[in-house]
Amino acid sequence: MRSQNRLLPFYFFLALFMAAPLAARIETERPPNIILLLADDLGWNGIGCYGSDFHETPNLDRLAARGTKFLDAYAACTVCSPTRAAAMTGIYPARLHVTNWIPGTKMPKAKLSPPDWTLYLEQRHATIAEVLRDGGYKTAHVGKWHLGGEGSLPENHGFDIDIGGTDRGSPPGGYFLPNNLDLPGAKEGEYLTDHLTKQALKLIDDWKEEAFFLYFAYYNVHTPIQGRADLVERYKEKLEAGPTPEQHTNPVYAAMTHSLDQSVGRIIQRLKKLGLDDNTVVIFSSDNGGLSHKGGNPTGITRNDPLRRGKGAAFEGGTRVPLIVKWPGVTPAGGICTEPVSTVDFYPTILDIVDIQGDPGHNANVDGISLVPVLEAPGASLGRDALFWHFPHYHAGGDSPYGAVRAGNWKLIEFYEEMDTELYHLKRDLSESKNVADQHPEKVARLRKQLHAWRDSVAAQMPVPNPDYDPENAREGAPKSLKGKKAKEKKTPQP
After folding, report:
1. For residues 37 and 31, what is the distance between their CA atoms, to the nearest angstrom?
2. pTM of structure
3. Which of 46, 129, 299, 469 can bridge 42 by disulfide, Cβ–Cβ 3.0-4.6 Å?
């Protein structure tokens, strides 16, 4: 007994010795790195783990197997710029007044005229990059920006480094370098996605000892549809070998998707090589649905089956997108979440993950909610009443201005030309093939009231009657081809 008592001081000092390094490690432990990967125009079923019958995406499939896959994830808008603004700020496009792709389609003889909307992301709104930079993170934007030109570029919104960001919505000059992007070290004939990936990897190498936020916004798979020759040939051979896929049959588009997947794989591998994989949160999604229609007619580029329509449309094919999140030690491997979530949730989720509060004034207007509860337990409920959309514009995809609300499994669409409504039960009718508004007038009235109240709460701008309306020429001004030259754009207004 006395010998045990003599050993007590020894055990006491041994415990102090062992605890000291642990305490120091906890004190100096770096917060998690954040990598946000945003594809362009990638539809809900565009990758293998979401049901593609042609595209090979082993790296994204592996990411989903190691993290959580969301089946009911939505873009904040049916086109790119508003969704990107929502991702950066956590605020609905309707509240930002950034409600169309910049600078938008001009249809001067349509029935309605769009409101005087904002053609850039205003600096009065905080961004993820600003908040993380102020919290000690290194911040970088790589790829597509499309939220304004001079005075509203990534470096004006919290990014230490910007590579490839402009006010343009598609790569000027196409996907093969040199194009009209000012890119460091561009090589003749190099594929744009490969080059941007090299730049992203260099940033990861340079910042391996620091906490960083990397926003890699891909140009893939936006038009022009151009793929690397080796991958195009791969998919041509796959088509010839048969059988012919039912959904996706475009070998060039498949090659673009494959390049996107390869890029994701290279980033994940670099994280592993540097020992950063276990301390990096990776988020992958898309800015809107796949481009499947032009003027209401199929484009031959992609399909979003079983979802109806695609980019620019009010239906699920226009807004439902893939979303995969891997948060090491938190997201269960192979997790599946069916909670409806939105791009507006990225901002509060990232702040919650890194435990940074952000600006209280900005946070008071944030429409998104943190997804941490469903990242920890994919079957949990977020307790959200509804998701909303507001698109007071016309689009080449063929749809007129509209608003929409999803509450539970019900989705109401209100088309602004006639203020008529369509109602769908998404669990029973994911393809939105049967409008049941006439069978459920009380549900229509309730959801319509909810939609109108939300529009008022965010000061949504509505389209107005057009005094120059010409029914026979209402589509005048819509792009004649989504594959050809880019329509002439007017200069983006400066903030």
Report:
1. 19
2. 0.91
3. 46
